[in-house]
Every structure is written in C-alpha cells, then in structure tokens.
Amino acid sequence: MMKLQQKLAILADAAKYDASCASSGSNNKNSKNGKGVGSTSSGMGICHSYTPDGRCISLLKILLTNFCIYECSYCINRASSPVERARFTVDEVVNLTIDFYKRNYIEGLFLSSGIIQSSDYTMEQMVSVARELRKTHDFRGYIHLKTIPDASPELLRMAGLYADRLSINVELPSKQSLALYAPEKNPATIKKSMSVLRDHIDESKESRKKSKIIATSATQPMKRHKKTSKFIYSPAGQSTQMIVGADQSSDAKILTLSNNLYNKYQMRRVYYSAFSPIPHSAQQLPAQSPPLIREHRLYQADWLLRFYGFGVNEITASSTVTNNEGQGGMLDLDIDPKLAWALRHLEFFPVNVNTATREMLLRVPGIGAIGANKIIKSRRFKRLRVSDIAKCGLSIKKIEPFIEAADANPACRLLEDENLKQYFIKKESAQMALF
Length: 435
Fold this sequence. Notes:
The chain is 37% helix and 9% strand. It is an alpha/beta fold and 435 residues long.
C-alpha cells in the first residue's frame, strides 16, 4: 500500500498547474472564542499569494486523485498518461488539512481532482472532504473546491455550502480547441454550471442583505421582524482559468471571453495559465511554452477591463501585433496594455492633472486608482506642479510625457517623438520557468 507521504508528493505536484487559488473576497471566520479550528479574513491570500499588507499565505493545494477517465491532450493526468497515480481517501485529506494547519504550515485548502468513476462520484467525494472539515472539525479556514461541470446541480449546491470559493475551468478560449484537445468537455455544460453557481451566489447575497437589514432595525421595538436565517453560499464567489498558448487563440479572443464571463456570470476572477509542454503530449500541441510575459500582459489587460473602464476593443483594436499564425489582436509584449493604448491615442494627451476627470486620469500610463485619488485630493488645496505629482508616490518618468501641470513640463515634447515607444522600453532579463 502506498504511504501517505508518497501520495502527498504525487498529488501536490499534480496540482501545481492550477493557478486559480486566491482567497480574496471571503467572509470573516475565526476561532477567537475558543471554538473551532482555523481562521480566514477578507483579502487573505492563499497558496503563496500575498495579502494587502504584504504577508505570504499558503494553503494545502492537492488533488484528491490524479486518476482520470478523461483524455484532455494538454493535461498530464489524462487517462493515457504514463504518470504515477495515487488517490487520497476523504479522511486522509481531512486529517492532512487539520494536521498541517495546527503545525502552522497552511491557512486553508485548495482541492481539485481527476475524474474517477463519474463526475457525480468525484464531486461527492470532494464535497465530503469540505463537509467533514466544517461539520466534524469546525474548521474555519479557507476552502476552495474545483468543481466539476458535469456534476449534478444538487452537488454543486452542496459544495457552495461548505467552500469559500468555487471554480470551474473553461480551459481553452474556443469551442473548436476544446473539442480538439478535450473532447469529453462541453462548453455548454461548463456555462450551465457557472450559471447555477451564480444563481446560488446571488441568492446568498440577497439573503445576507435581508438579514443585515433585519439586524439593523431590531433595536426599534415598535416593529416586529420575522427572523430569517442567512443562506451562506460560496462567499468568495466563483473563478475560472484559461490555458494560454495551447491553441492559436488571439489575446483579443481570450479577453472577449473573459469580459463575457465577468459580465454574465459575475466571475470574481479569471486566471490565465501559460501552456506548459508535458511528456508524451499530443502532436498537435505546441512544442514550446508561450513567453510568460504574454500571461503577464493578459493579467494587466484583465485589470484594465475590471477596474479602469477600458473595453476589449480599446485594448486590442488597431493592434498590428500578430501571433505565429499571423492572426492579429495580440497584446504588445514590449510594453503594458495601457501604455500601448496611450501611444495609439496621443490625441488625448497631455492630460491636465488640475482639471481632468478621474476617468481620464486613470487612462494616463503610470497612474492607478490610488494615484488618481491622491491627485484629486491634493488639487483641492492648490494647483499641482510636476513636483507635486512625485509627492503622490507616482513614477514621474512614466507619467511626465502624458501630463501637463501648473508649471512648464518639457517632457510633453516627447509626444511628438516618432520613437516614443523606445523611451519606455527597458531591457529585461530572461524570465525563469514556473516549474
């Protein structure tokens, strides 16, 4: 019989390809009252993620098993792969989580799995792990379950009762690629399951709102309020992941899909994972990984979509950058997407920092949400000069060509330079591989 340590080595290594393991947005739970085990708080990071205060937080990130009946070409755990196999029991995962937490190794659990026997059977096993942790051990740390799209709606509902976050991977950006590389997976089924999760999450949010209103007005003796129980379901929402570079999908296609997922399913986060060649892979897959900077640029573009008011067309339109197949709509790897947009739209610059709206300040390369707020707050008291912008903690070298202030700004002349892009490009050292 395989020892527990051997299983852990195999199944922890098998889980490293899943990037979607951040914990922001969960509700607060703790064991300060002397009951329960573990804690979690808003903004907490897991699996070597970083919290807002700079702390590095870890979680136990494993597969329940790397046995799988599916034949996904890009997956090292596919049915035909010659990798060494292992499988945890429910009790083994539960005990590992509790033991690791008490040793201060982790602050939560990220659990995924290959498909064994059937989707429902596998999902039931994963739900059992979360239920045992919550109900038997009163575990109050973070739990993230990677749900299975083909599982029954009832199992999906149960998963959200015990997990802080749920996720369903869309895997690849196009239906054609999914049919080619993962024939057992159905895009329609994936989206249907995402819709089920969103309905439950919305129901939970509404339940918590009503409960809060009742609690707030409970001090008014003249009003009688019907007591309602809160329905807590996946308080940190749902997330998904896409593999980048396994097919020929352009960045524009990837970002369009991400934007639809955010709008239609209220996705908390879309993760982008650069394709990593695996042993004995299908011949149609690329022999090399895409440059990791592409993954980084997609995250930057994703941020512009979610928090800066940019549209997909603004980020990728008029791009002359192409992929290996000559397809357009690719992000510029040399500079970040906001700077690339600014260089294509010099007619909007320079921006006057003393009069510009917050929306326009956010379009200036080098000015983020915090910087824009500082500028708006500071200009209430005086007209800002270029030196005042530096006091807001912003990088003058990147911002200066795009702004005008109360004093003269010679850097604005750079906007007339035909080689302005070269001003910003820096030579960077080669990136290290993830694995």
